[in-house]
Queue: 3 jobs
Job 1
Amino acid sequence: MNITEIFETMDYGPAPESPTPALAWIKERQPFGLFVNGQWVKPASGQYLDSINPSTGKPLTQVAAANSEDVNAAVTAARTAFETWGKTPGHVRARYMYAIARHIQKHSRLLAVLESLDNGKPIRETRDIDIPLVARHFYYHAGWAQLMASELPGYEPVGVVGQIIPWNFPLLMLAWKIAPALAMGNTVVLKPARYTPLTALKFAEIVQEIGLPPGVVNILTGEASQVGEALVRHPDVNKIAFTGSTDVGRSLRRATAGSGKKLSLELGGKSPFIVFDDADLDSVVEGVVDAIWFNQGQVCCAGSRLLVQEDVAERLIAKLRARMEKLRIGDPLDKAVDIGAIVSSAQLKEIQRLVEQGVDEGAEMWQPSWACPTEGYFFPPTLFTNVSPATTIAQVEIFGPVLVSMTFRTPAEAVALANNTRYGLAASVWSENINLSLDVAPKLKAGTVWVNCTNLFDASSGFGGYRESGFGREGGKEGLYEYVRPACETAGPASTPSSKFPIAKGAVHPSNGSEPAIGTSLDEDERTVSEFEPSNGSRIALPAIDRTPKMFINGKQVRSDSGYSQDVYDPAGRVIGQVGEGNRKDIRNAVEAAHAASGWASSTTHNRAQILYYIAENLSVREGEFARRIVQQTGRSQADAITEVQAAISRLFSYAAWADKFEGVVHRPPLRGVVLAMEEPIGVIGMACPDEYPLLDFVSLVAPAIAMGNTVVVIPSQQSPLSATDCYQVLETSDLPDGVVNIVTGDRDMLSQVLADHDDVEAMWYFGSAEGCKRVELASASNMKRTWVNYGHPRNWLDPIQGEGEEFLRESTQVKNIWVPYGD
Ligand code: NAD
């Protein structure tokens, strides 16, 4: 072809990257061993697995198939290394991490080629996106290692972390996991995905090269059923960090329930790509290319649902089809290729199956006229129109280059359609009207929202899901908390079941060790507080008017649906009152009321602060009354009880203060623009209070949650519920909107189970027995609700370090990162 012809066709010539150095690297080392304690070792099973090149379908090499014996060895090495690494000064850890970043850059081309060979993704992406971001993650987190002591005081590393990653961004997912873990002083055992082990093995070499102490990083290749499961169940692993599908994430939640292992889950998505009619449609077309054809659509946050305002839909679809016609598919090592190979034949078959199902369900399918390569696993870019929102292809993550499009008329309809999914990983909004975009972004249930851009990532900006896209963040300061725990908290579940009634009946007061003043119950006084003087002059002792604490649902005091009541005892065993025995129906009503009150989330932070101050004010007016109630229920001294009430008032002040101050940060990633990391409420939080401090515990849990805009369904202390039920009148007179706080008394574990099972509850906090914690974590897997449990360990709620502060605020919020590029 001569220059004139090339000019006429404007066709690309081949621009192949040579695989020779990467293939030589592979050849020198195969079959690959496991990387344990800084050494290459043979797998205990003696077995090896093929690693396939998806663009040819042929084996590239063989890697070791680890089993539970290898997992034991790796965890032991990581544990031993942790003893030193966990105490190594941040500056020293920072130097190692800086060296890793440098060495990644030194080997960048080898890593990029290996990644393309092993995964099938175009070299253009591995070279320009994956590998630079990997280096950036290590640089960024070297900084956090350096700053940990000053910026995260009171936190310690978690210990040995098991990390399990998928195949779609093999080295990048490794970096997202290993960089924050090492920065915070943890040691790791990482399992790469079955299909894509090679860059993790090259990474192990880098770890050796820079002289990272043995055992800090261990890498085990192999099957999920052999390595993954053994790692998740290993008793000496303190945390599991997982990225992968929602179904596996759910099974990990169940497998780790009650174990005390920290868990972060980055799961699947079905992200909306919303186009308003004033958007720049040519930019939108390029955005769609990046949203769904980047990495063959095998991207957790792929913009796989195109939602277009009706009046521009036809124009946009025409432009898109024209662009699709020009996309180039083929050899991933060709630098001019847009779309590479699908990772495996199994994944290809799954994409084909779902596409056929879309056609069967009546959607209209369109593909470019050109043909895919016949060798290897390729699938053409595919566009579905005429899609109904309830169909499989509109709901299920296809994880391939398949876009489904739907239309909407109004912004409200766009938001409803966008949120019509069980996932909540990401969303993009396209409009030239910044007011509209920034109005829509907070309404989208997604951890990341890109305005007029898509699929941008940076180490400074946390990434992670809402809803069934998982919990936890990777990147940013928020991501560090996944790898630390407050130094004051005991790790793991309590070995002895915690006492049901830890303070009453003469138990030692946990805050100061003094004996409670048993026998100062006020019941006698309360029952005969006054005298009646009829007209005949005689005087009759008057019984107190019976008080019946009910449930508090939707701002009203209502009777329990069960029609049963439970006696409440003082420490001497005398009945001091009765509360309703809540049941499923009460919880359902309370959850409904809490949902109906969701407008609380959009009330101003100033307004929420005012109401919390007002609650404190009204509580202080009744200080004596609340103190007497505490004495009556717990047998503690009057002075102690007053201390508790005052601590509760102070706590309300703290969260009134935080309401307009815990607001997020602005990130400056390397782009022209900003990322707004906003602290958003989680939604409806169910909470079960402990028994230690009947009033303070209740306030300590409810106040941060509502300060951050959540609505709550609270099960007060089972043993001493009367302090919470006495709060009704305080809440009723403090301008708190109906339904923001709902209180259901009764059996803590039974009611917690109902809350944890409830699909409309977004988070569950449980402070009770170790066994109860396990049940809550197990049940939470149904809708992947966030849980916060105490594993049976009591905490000293009077102590402000344990009883209030940032930890409570973080549990009350989830970070949404909104990317706003600027400039023309
Ligand atoms: P997958 O869930 O099948 O596997 C992920 C990893 O878990 C692999 O290493 C696998 O071997 C391992 N695994 C599978 N079953 C296991 C078990 N029972 N116990 C322990 N480990 C087990 O996912 P995949 O097919 O590799 O990756 C695609 C999925 O990952 C998609 O759903 C995608 O959305 C998701 N993903 C999410 C993110 C994110 O950040 N949210 C990023 C990338 C991919």
Note: Residues 164-168, 191, 193-194, 224, 228-229, 232, 243-245, 248, 251, 266-269, 300, 397, 399, 425, 465 surround nicotinamide-adenine-dinucleotide (CB under 6 Å).
Job 2
Amino acid sequence: MSAPDCIFCKIIRGEIPSRKVFEDKDIFAFHDINPLAPVHFMIIPKQHVASLADCDASHEGILGRILAAAPRLAREQGSTDGFRVIINAGRVGRQEVYHLHVHVIGGPDVLGPMLKRN
Ligand code: 5GP
Ligand code: ZN
């Protein structure tokens, strides 16, 4: 199901432009508008799922497909020696867009630390 007012659903529907990385019947991948590294794209389910915080066993299939696509897409985008996957979930995770998205971040150089201490 697509959510009428969700910006990532609008990107999937082509109502908001994006730089597409990959698409199949279940998932959509596109470059982050504000990249944190030379490679920074997001993989999302085409079905509107608000957050990883809302997922359960019924989402195992789509979560598996998203993660399984990440290594190949990362390599194709130029992250040939590893990458980082980040999923921000809910208030504590500082999720900003409430359509589940998996950030894939990398490039030629080693990334910074995973998190700064609070
Ligand atoms: P979050 O903080 O929810 O994990 O990440 C949301 C991400 O979506 C941010 O990195 C932000 O730059 C990206 N973003 C927000 N709006 C748009 C948009 O309209 N287009 C694209 N390509 N990325 C977006
Ligand atoms: Zn959505």
Note: The pocket of guanosine-5'-monophosphate (ligand 1) is lined by residues 7, 16, 18, 30-34, 88, 94-97 (CB under 6 Å).
Job 3
Amino acid sequence: SLRGHFAVLRLLWLLSVFGTVLPLDGGMLFPRESSFREVKELNGLWDFRADGSPNRNEGFEKAWHKRQLAEPTVDRDTTVAYMIEMPVPASYNDITQDPTLRDFIGWVWYDREVAVPARWISDQGTRVVLRVGSAHYYSIVWVNGEKVTEHEGGHLPFEAEISSLIRREPMKPCRITIAVNNTLTLETLPPGTIQYMNDSSRYPDGFFVQNMDFDFFNYAGIHRPVLLYTTPKVYVDDITVETNFMDNTGLIRYKVSVQGGFSNTLNITLMDKDGHFVASSNGSSGVLRVVDVKLWWPYLMHENPGYLYSMKVHLIAVSETSTYEDEYTLPLGIRTVNVTNTQFLINNKPFYFHGVNKHEDADIRGRGFDWPLIVKDFNLMKWLGVNSFRTSHYPYAEEILQMCDRHGIVLIDECPGVGIKDIRSFGNASLSHHLVVMDELVRRDKNHPSVVMWSVANEPASEMPPAEFYFKTLIEHTKALDQTRPVTYVTIAEADMDKGGPYVDVVCVNSYFAWYFDQGRLDIVPLQLSTHFENWYRKYQRPIIQSEYGADAVPGLHMDPPMMFTEEYQNALLQSYHDVFDQKRNQYFIGELIWNFADFMTAQGIYRVVGNKKGIFTRQRQPKAAAFLLRKRYWRLANETGRLLPD
Ligand code: GCB
């Protein structure tokens, strides 16, 4: 029986070695305050200069990191290179009235001074770490003119320990300089190309453009919070948990890594949501047993979704001269994820994804982290009856993942592998960077119960011959990093010769029938969509998610009978897809994610009327007619598929 099958699997799990192996040195725990850790946010206004020099290199030639950007000794004769105030976090593109800055390509420079608490400097037993939540795309960081780190990739955090640097000149304020470059090349993720226009009768000297094969504005700047935090010199560097359960007993397998030398004692205490003691353990690895476990359930699948325990890790380390004490508390949810040929199981119950695709995108701030926007979006999603979303097309802020954990919103966690269309982007340099991005993504997000699947790419040109080796390597690598979650990449309907298909655990397909093809012909959707599903299932024998479908609608535009771009057409198109979903739902079809939650900005082009209008909400988060259609459907689906099924 299925039950016996899972009992055997669980036993094997207990006996197996720890599933998560991480090749990166060092952890990337989300900075949290505790009795032994402090956090100082550096959000607000920073000084900012874009390097508009023809080779975009003046900042390096003149060593802008050696002094304040605001200092008058810096030349001001280049096009964009005047110092202005820039909010952090935010994309810089839409902050000013200057189209040169909106469309800028190259290095921009940020700096600010920070007053560091005296104790952080005087106490040699304290580590001070500078952390950037994310900056797009390539960053170099200096402290008081000295380089402390570099990072490639726009949507993941990076940090540097700066304790000894700030102790050198303790009386001086500490100046942090961050240079950020948004240029995309064939080897970046996402890829892009820089094209010089050499026809001097049509373009001025040195004219170039950034080409990209993806459908969102390449927002840039410091997108997530920048902060300083402290840990003791000997500290909890990383924690990994894997969870399971047997009947009423929850099982948490944990591993803690400590950095800073010395022998140490680790005490692990698990508390429930109300702060009551549940279980404890000692040592750097072990299994915690949770009697009468409260499992982590998705929103609308249980009356008490998103249940989180807290795992407090307490460290005492002794050297000849001093004692160090550290404490880090990790929220965790106990749940399992399994995939069969036809189903996606959370806690052994079939889970049906009814949700959205999102973007980190809004007016003025671009992709910049913004609490009011995040909370509004969660309220809208819960109003809609959304139980899941995909982080299309890049990793989202950790604070968003934490909200998903607490609210029980299930996530498909996608890396920035979008727009891989040029055959040169399947080479070794691209692949090895892609593997590093997966390492960083899994390291950051491995402990989130909301994350149930990794997506390694969106719509790559997977019919190209090198795609097979590329995706086989990438998917096997990701599975080796994390044996507890399925892996997918998102494909397009039309590329039926999908080389990576055999390696994915779940088939995620995007399609735009009656939109990009057979324009205006809603009547073809039932035939094309069901044929398409049948073909994919026959070919791969994996459960299928409709990972994108939709139509642009200009809010307020109406036509009946429906025509493309009206609210009626968007509604009718969704409805025609839904009819097919409902036929396949009890077979192998396991979820539907609308494209898109909200309208979002794109590059300028004849297919986009100030951005992509496939949102069911406007960019300002007001509903189009489709939001009400979807709300009705999602709540009905929640009642039909989301209830707790008896064993
Ligand atoms: C897609 C892409 C998405 C686009 C969408 C569209 O297939 O994955 O990034 O925005 O289609 O609207 O064309």
Note: The mean pLDDT is 94.
